[in-house]
Amino acid sequence: MKVLIAPNSFKGFLSSPAAARIMRKALEEAAPGNRYEMFPLADGGDGFVDTLTHHFNYNTHRLCCRDISGKVQGVPYAVDGDRVYLEMAAVSGYGLLRPEERRVERLSTYELGLLAQKLYMAGKNRLCIGLGGSASNDCGLGMLAAMGCRFLDSRGKDLFPGRPIREVLEDTVTIDRQALRYPGLRIELYCDVDNLLIGSAGAVRVYGPQKGIAPTDLPLWDKACARFLRVLAHSAGKAVADKPGFGAAGGIGAGLHYLLDAELRMGVDLFLEQPAFKDKVNQADLVVTGEGKLDRSSFYHKATGALYRTVRRMGKQVVFLVGVADALPDEDVRVFAHPVAHPTYATVARSLRRAALDLGGTL
Q1: Options 3.40.50.300, 2.70.98.10, 3.40.50.10350, 1.10.150.130; which CATH number does 2-41+269-360 get?
Q2: Per-residue pLDDT tens over the stretch 47-78
Q3: Which of 279, 277, 276 is nearest to 289 (CA)?
């Protein structure tokens, strides 16, 4: 039997190449008679740069920058010709914060804006940003503020920084873009999900609870984002439109699309559209994928959900190895899950190994 191993990252603990190696070693131990190949995935979230480098051997560098927790660190980025690939999670990610620091009212994408500005000033004017694993729900206003925008209320008073994020979204009447001048800058956003910004399947309703938005506050945040979307469109002189991918990473795509003409793409498609991936699927008898938690958001074009649909269309079976499974797309899905009470690198690695051993015992 030929088995293709193609996991996503296990957020904050294992990169997808590391997860693939653990899965392969355990499967070879449990079912040594099979042939195993690895094709780790990413969708724009945690591990985006690491996985790109694994597949395409891009040159990698680090740039010293302050992250969302206030710490100064070397943020990794990869270079391919005139393109610079970076990931939002490395500088504005949820995993960088302690539980007591995860207060969505006070968190923004400001640090990502500082990083983008530094790269631009260093001559990097084509930025390819992986979206996912974000801590904020600010529609990109923090990044835009770092790059020169001012968000003004009806009296012309600056709202950011200083006011809680939801109030800025609610009360912004005018966006001053005079200092938002970056000649030649091109931004490509690689989204980890294809949600809209607003509504029952939007950024707030689906991902807000993960970021600490109380159930009773979800309608207020959703309304604030809808209002801010109209202000963005008016500022850009464009029609108001909610688009797939605007719901990724707390709505950052909406702000950057309207005010910096950012293009939105699906991050996992960088990998699934590679001829090598399709060749490996065609040659495989079984495809094994995995991530930390399998839930309904996994099937909004995140890596594992997108892989599942792609592989099933190609007539092959898929097995998930996960920590927790909350939702399944249909009754035929095979899942091996080993929950982790106190996740660390070591406990998540052990959990994944146990799930792979369980699968190996059936092959």
Answers
A1: 3.40.50.10350
A2: 899 999 999 999 999 999 999 999 999 999 99
A3: 277
What is the amino acid identity at position 203? A
Handedness of CA 277, 278, 284, 288 (dihedral sign): positive
- For residue 127 the two structure tokens come to 């930025």
What residues have CB less than 8 Å from 219, skipping those under 6 apart? none
> Per-residue confidence at 295, pLDDT binned at 50, 70, 90?
confident
CB-CB contact of 268 with 41 (8 Å) = yes
Q: Whole-model pTM?
A: 0.91
Of the options 3.90.1510.10, 3.40.50.620, 3.40.50.2300, 1.20.1250.20, the CATH number for the domain spanning 48-266: 3.90.1510.10
Pairwise CA distance, residues 131 & 43, whole Å: 8
Domains of the chain by residue range: 2-41+269-360, 48-266
- Residue 68 DSSP code: T
